[in-house]
Structure formats: structure tokens, C-alpha cells
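Hey,

Quick one before I head out. I ran the complex with magnesium ion overnight. Inputs first:
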Amino acid sequence: MTAYRIALIPGDGIGAEVLPPAQAVLAAVGRRHGLEFTYDSFDWSCERYLAEGAMMPSDGLDRIRHHDAVLLGAVGWPGVPDHVSLWGLLIPIRRGFRQYVNLRPVKVLDGVPSPLRGAGEVDLVVVRENVEGEYSEIGGRLGRGTEDELAVQEAVFTRKGVTRVAEYAYTLAEARRNHVTSATKSNGIVHTMPFWDQLVEEVAGRHQTVRTDKEHIDALAAKLVLAPERFDVIVGSNLFGDILSDLAAAVAGSIGVAPSANLNPEREFPSMFEPVHGSAPDIAGQGKANPLGALWSAAMMLDHLGHPEASGELLAAAFGALADGVRTVDLGGTADTAGYTRAVLDRMGVAA
Ligand code: NAI
Ligand code: MG
């Protein structure tokens, strides 16, 4: 028996509704593969912010530093500005634990209609830089409230930061279809983006079997809609990767199915696994949330912990339930969160 201790952060809204299904399927797949998961749950959320003035305690990172992984639902709630929930919880974890790769696989699944006609064969991964770039605290505002009011925000691109995320993308492409598309905008953004291009080219030179396409972000957004099946690995800065991965998830049919991994590839710190979607206040508390994004994120956690077979089984059961026609409302079905989860567990041979 291999034991793992997981830090659980349900967060807000449907975050708390999609993690119990993930725990249930992890228990089921774990039983078959000799894996045991125990959880420490943390109430870090907007609710906590409203009650105590902070999303998490000041020693929050220390409390989860020695866990094997972090599983997160979603954070954000009306009444708390979104930058508070992001900068008070997600960004400190991503940066404090050097989770510099944000991995977002996108697939068109059997039983999930894509809004695009003929988007049959989409199977791509967005590799988003996760700790620097456009999401920086450097900058400021001057002359508040005056006619000359202004805001300046600096983007930070480092040789080390770009090189390591590009290395990750190229290595990943070597294990897939040997194709990397680099998202850039070096025609308009004349300092950081040419630097990005130069560093990606340096990394490309070390991976001769991989074909590279360099695309400006605007044209790339259009191509992702027109011909999503052409892409294998897309590598982008923090902002470009964020936008492209939501776009790609929508192309695949629903934000509710999209997973993500925030990886510290060196394993000095725990990595964090979370569905791409937010807390969905419009459907929270109604049992309607699609848990697939969370289940797929749990499968990515199994991969990261070194159990690709268990991960594959979990995904086969989750995708198989969809193909059988058991779908949540966001996918045009009638199943609720519990019903879809039951169908997945059934496929794993677990009596409900
Ligand atoms: P959202 O992803 O929460 O919801 C967008 C739409 O998709 C809504 O109509 C929602 O009902 C639907 N949806 C999302 N996930 C679903 C699921 N699993 N099953 C079925 N339907 C689903 O994005 P929104 O509305 O922009 O943000 C709501 C809150 O969540 C905000 O406070 C935002 O800051 C936060 N947020 C947090 C994220 C995170 O924790 N990583 C990511 C995105 C947003
Ligand atoms: Mg996003």
C-alpha cells in the first residue's frame, strides 16, 4: 500500500461540490492499485476572507508544504473582488511552491458536442507559464481621480523562467506528436516578446525532432477556432496561456470538463491540481455542477504521483460514462453531480 496525504482546498461555490466526487473515484481506483489517500481539508475561501480578513492564514503555505499534492475546487464569490481571491490564495500557492508550469489538456470527448462543426480530433495541451509574465505586482497608479490619471503595469520575463517552461513544453511534445506552437506577439510588444521568441528558439534547437510554429496570439486565437485539430502542444506566457486555455476548453464543449495541473517539476514542493472552471455562483448549491474537470484533475494528480495506469483507468471510466449518455446539464444531459459520479463509479466496478 502506498499512502498519500493530500491537502484539500474546496474553496467557494461548486468548488466544494466537485471535490467529493474526485475523492470517491480516487478511493475506488486506489483500492485496485494499492494506493491510499488521506486528506487534510482547509477552509480557505472567500467565506473565510469575509469572516477573518484573509483568504488563508499567514502561515498557510507552511501548513501544506509537506503534503504530497494539493487538490483545489475553485475560489471566488460575489462581494469579494476577484483579485483578492486570486492574489490571496491561488497566486501565493503557485509562486510560493514554484509551480511554474500550468498544464491544461483539451480533448473533444465522445458524447460532448463541440460548438464547432467537425472538431472531431482535438487533442492538445496548453502549457502556460505560471509564475511570472504579465501577472506582476510591479507598477502603480498616479494622479488618482484627476484628468491625468494613469496606470502602469510591468510584465516580467526572465531567461530562467521562459527557458524552463519552454523546456517542459518541448519535452512534453517529444512524448506526444512532436509539435510545439509558441504564442507570441513580437510585432506589437517589442521587448518581452522578441525575448520570449529568442529563448523558445534556443530551446527548440535542443529538441531537433520537434517541429515549431510561432504564431501571433491574435492569429492563433482564430486558428484555434478554425482548425483546433492542428495543434499538439501550445506554449504561452501567463496571460496568453490563460486566455488560450479557456478558449480551447470552450472549443471542446464545456468549461466544466477542463482540468489543470500547476506543476513544480523539480518536486521541491507539492503540485496543485484544480479544474479550470470557477465557483459558478449561478448554479452553486443545486447539485448541477459537472465534476469531470475535478475528476480529470485528480487523474493528472495520479500521473504526477507516478501512477499512469490508475490515471488512465479513472479517465476511461469518466469518459466512458459520457459516451454511455450520462451527462450533466452543461453538456445537454439530465444527470446531476451525484448521478454522473455514480455512473463513473459503476464503470469502475464499485457498487453505489
Ligand atoms: P465560472 O467558471 O465559475 O462559470 C462560468 C459559467 O460556466 C457559469 O455559467 C457556470 O455555471 C458554468 N460552469 C462552470 N463550471 C461548471 C461546472 N463544473 N459544471 C457546470 N457548469 C459550470 O466563471 P465565472 O462565472 O466567470 O466566475 C465565477 C467566480 O469564480 C468568480 O469569482 C471568479 O473569479 C472565480 N473563478 C475562479 C477560478 C479558480 O478558482 N481557478 C477560475 C475562474 C473563475
Ligand atoms: Mg482563466
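Residues 114-252 form a domain with the Isopropylmalate Dehydrogenase fold (CATH 3.40.718.10).

Talk tomorrow,
K.
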